[in-house]
Design a protein that fits this description.
Helix content is 42%, strand content 18%. It has 187 residues and is α/β, with parallel strands linked by helices. The protein has a single domain, classed as Collagenase (Catalytic Domain). The strands form 2 sheets. The chain has a 5-stranded mixed β-sheet with strand order 3-2-4-7-5. A two-stranded parallel sheet has the order 1-6. α3 links the parallel β2 and β3. α3 packs across α7. The longest helix has 18 residues.
Amino acid sequence: MKNLIIILLFLNPIWIFSQKLFSNEEFLIISDNGRRWYKDIKICLYGYYSKRDSLDVVENIKIFKPLITPININIVKNKDSANVVIYFLSDTEFGNIFPDKKKVIKDCIGITIDCGVNKLSSSVIHIDLIENKRLNSFSNTIRHEMFHMLGFTHYSEEKNSILDMDDYLTNKDIEMIKYLYSDKFKL
């Protein structure tokens, strides 16, 4: 019996690692205790976005869509029918629309502001035109902020992830999205 317990204790970490690229504790921190969407995500683009910017949003939707089933995600033309608005503005212009956010947008190339306690109900994303143009970082910033829109937050221990401003979603990012939006995940 003692040998069986030792074997199970030894195999358990291997089994957990082979099943997930993250621990439950890490996941709960990164997903803000499992905050997610339970209704369709309707995104409206607003401001001075380029055709490349809109194509980046569409490309990210194509990436995220199969990972967040049964939630649908698409672009809508009207802000009134959207529950996510991506603002492509300077900090000054964004601050004029949202005066209470002037302090939080300072020194950010992008920011996502989510509404909803346990269930996400809306998001506002700001893509700073001036800083992203200076850094040539629109595509990466859009993907990073859309990852936040899905319910993920920064985690100081995170490396090699879209949260760490990598250019792509890692296998870990993809696995976290799939898990958060799967039937297996319960709050």
